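2024-03-11 09:14:02 INFO worker-7 job=invfold-0412 stage=load source=structure_tokens
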């Protein structure tokens, strides 16, 4: 492909992939290094049978540990847990889903498997030939290369190396001619939200890893204040994958997780075992009114509009002039939180809808006061 054609294609490609925050499933949070072909097929089956696919969860993403060895020509192969990646992609596609994969710009992935260092074009071609639709590209051992070459992995030179490494893989993906979502994972180093789009990122992790604990989820989620201006169609902030249903939080805390991620216009990548999920987990993951907030076509990320101790109010502009509002209680006991409608630009006769109760509620004298459970949320849609 000629350079001009390639760059026109790159421009044409960006709004096409990830026009709204990617939704799907990723193997890491539940299966970690144990993930196998059978687990991925089971996840694909469950996305369909549970109704999650029809609610928008399309990507089936294999994280680290699928990688085998390179052959004499340098072509990457899968390990024994994944006997035939092309056949797996065909299976996933036959269900109306898309398949994602994982690699690193370094020689090794974070779990110590084969990375793409020195084989970027070759790997991109292999992924495209398999039918891959999404690549998570995780810095990992490239940090060591940055350090070896510049003496300090936090130096300006190291930063330039890092950007070049991401751009290299982006170009390699574009050159395949297959639309592949490009997910940057470098834990938010060097304010990645400021340059992620420049290197072709459709999304970029803004933090270190999430874990299945309220304290870590809240630490990550609420630290996203101020990042809203960097997100938009085709390029999203990624506060990491969902832990909903993995067992370490209460139902109320998982509702907070889902609400906050939706207000943040974050990718919604379920991280639980989809073939064994409770009614509560499925209800949280498939709340259509909350998903509509995340996927709103305006593509604006929400931000914090008010904070008083453990009480926080976040708001996200929606198409048609409405706002999604999250009233969050981070305290260990219930709190009453009051939303002043004028704070988010609405008059006293605005329409309010509770998106978890699925019912309309009413404001009094220009404000709405409600008791929010510990670590919980009340999520509203406000419109005139
Ligand atoms: C890093 C990433 C995680 C996961 C693991 C896999 O820690 O941040 O999301 O991909 O690597 O090894």
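2024-03-11 09:14:09 INFO worker-7 stage=emit residues=384
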């Amino acid at each position: 492909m000629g350079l001009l054609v390639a760059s026109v294609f790159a421009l044409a490609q960006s709004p096409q992939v990830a026009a709204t925050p990617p939704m799907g499933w990723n193997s890491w949070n539940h299966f970690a290094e144990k993930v196998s072909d059978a687990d991925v097929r089971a996840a694909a089956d469950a996305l369909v049978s549970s109704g999650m696919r029809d609610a928008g969860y399309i990507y089936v993403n294999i994280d680290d540990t699928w990688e085998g060895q390179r052959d004499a020509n340098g072509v990457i192969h899968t390990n024994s847990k994944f006997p035939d990646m092309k056949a797996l992609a065909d299976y996933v596609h036959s269900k109306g889903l898309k398949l994602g994969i994982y690699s690193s710009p370094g020689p090794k992935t974070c779990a110590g498997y084969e990375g793409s260092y020195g084989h970027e074009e070759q790997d991109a071609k292999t992924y495209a030939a398999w039918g891959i639709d999404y690549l998570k590209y995780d810095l990992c051992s490239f940090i060591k290369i940055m350090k070896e070459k510049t003496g300090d992995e936090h130096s300006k030179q190291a930063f330039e190396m890092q950007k070049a490494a991401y751009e290299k893989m982006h170009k390699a993906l574009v050159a395949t001619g297959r639309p592949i979502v490009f997910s940057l994972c470098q834990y938010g180093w060097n304010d990645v939200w400021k340059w992620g789009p420049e290197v072709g990122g459709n999304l970029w992790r803004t933090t270190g890893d999430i874990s299945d604990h309220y304290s870590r989820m809240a630490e990550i989620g609420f630290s996203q204040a101020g990042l809203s201006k960097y997100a938009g169609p085709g390029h999203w902030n990624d506060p990491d994958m969902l832990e909903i249903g993995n067992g370490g939080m209460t139902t109320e805390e998982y509702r907070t997780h889902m609400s906050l991620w939706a207000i943040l216009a974050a990718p919604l990548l379920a991280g639980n075992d989809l073939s064994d999920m409770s009614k509560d987990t499925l209800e949280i993951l498939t709340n259509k009114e909350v998903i509509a907030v995340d996927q709103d076509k305006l593509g604006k990320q929400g931000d914090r509009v008010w904070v008083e101790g453990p009480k926080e109010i976040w708001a996200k502009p929606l198409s048609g002039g409405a706002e999604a509002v999250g009233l969050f209680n981070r305290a260990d006991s219930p709190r009453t939180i009051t939303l002043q409608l004028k704070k988010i630009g609405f008059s006293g006769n605005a329409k309010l809808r509770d998106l978890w109760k699925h019912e309309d509620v009413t404001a009094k004298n220009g404000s709405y006061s409600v008791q929010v459970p510990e670590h919980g949320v009340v999520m509203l849609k406000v419109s005139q």
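2024-03-11 09:14:09 INFO worker-7 stage=report msg="The first strand starts at residue 23 and ends at 26."
2024-03-11 09:14:10 INFO worker-7 job finished
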